[in-house]
Amino acid sequence: MNPRMKRKIPRIPLVTSEGEVAGQLALPIRKQKLLSAVKETQVKFLSPVDTDYKALVAENYDNFVVQPGTELSSELHTRLQQGFETLLTNGYLYQHRIRFRNKTVMTPVSRTLIGEPGMTYRYLNLRLFALPWTFDDKKKLSDVEKACNAFYELNTYFKDHVNKLITEKFASSTGRKIDETDDSLKTIIQRNTEFKATILNYMDPSEIRLKQEPYYNMGDIAVSWHKDESLVDGSTVAVYNHVPMEARQDCSKWKVGLKVAWDITTPAVCTPLNNKDCYYMLDTMNDTHQHCVIAGTLPRYSSTHRVVESSDSTLCYIQQRCQTALDNIGYKDQIPYLKSLETDVLQLIEEIHSEIEFEWLRQFWMQGTQHSQERQYWLKPMEQLQEDWKTMELMTKLMIDIVVKKKDQSHMIAKILLPSLVERNELRNEWMNRYSEKEFYHIPEEHRPIYEPCWTDANSEMPLPFDLSQHIDIIQECMDTNDSQ
Hints:
Strand order of the largest sheet: 2-14-11-16-9-5-8
CATH class of the largest domain: Mainly Beta
Oligomer: single chain
Distance between the termini: 69 Å
Helix content: 40-55%
Radius of gyration: 25 Å
CATH topology of the largest domain: Jelly Rolls
Largest sheet: 7 strands, mixed
């Protein structure tokens, strides 16, 4: 699709931004009251045209840095701009459907995740699966892969530049340089600038009915007030801004708004961005401040590089979790058995079982056929994860058999199984109800959720039925019988 062609406004309701959803999902009551107070008082904001802007930034926003695009090479700009266009025209940037207030809503911004091979990033209860940005040296790259690699080149530049900015800031504030004796500090800086992924964003404001920024009257809000989620504490966020047709004289600029989190006394700032500019929220700024994006007149791309909290968000992580569970199944004369019936072992197996199904398999397939076809890197790993998950269904079946046959430790196993099965059954129903909503009939078939894993009782290859209600009743009955004895 030509990026300049008008697209039909989707019929699924739009949510203003991830900030609105994240705020409503997890906002404590005291913070909701504080937001109301801010709205009532209409605290002012400053922009570069105001006399006190520079002093305010120096005092309260000193970790916010705007870098002119002229400081990056023209070759890198060209690669990045071609990369944005390639990914958009090939259908890799699209709006995500998420759950908000028991409804399916669409994000106004079209996105995709690019990053280290096997990286994921979870936001708004949706797991994004990264397109890899590095490849085997011998591989002949497609246009899309070349586009992804361009953002790896930008990522490398950001790492070096942010490291330099923080090092200079440290020297300016302390009067000394970071030398070889500061190994611990250098390690912290390296950790907090180790960008692992970028979310690419695209929005054409002419296609979407945007709301006004609610507290400061900054303008049409494209991304509402928020802190970026799932990042390493104290880590930097680096952003590249691209507005392809900004040379037009009749256009208003895109802006980034910043405010001290939950503070109604310190004025906010609103800073316009030029095409090709970069901006940085250094060090702890994402922890202590909130930011928003104010829409300009023209379509805009951005690449937002993050130090993702990756302890539970990589393919390697979930593969290791799978192996931990599968280590407890053995075969004697081709008959499966559980090696250990220890409480902690069985509890962990059930946790991993549900994690794979609801945090990985269903998260991957529910994003549709186009999503899966675009992520060739992920197809074989997801196939293996599903095989491992199927083995865990068998392991759960072996636990159920022990309970039903009233063998030793059956009561202990039943106490582990019952809450796990109840939760799994509820989550399956929740996901299936999410899939069957009428709104999905109004979106292209390639973006409709895939019912996977899903099976009928006629499928003899599955150890357990999809609906676990009957087994839940059996386990409950066994527990009640045991308790009455």
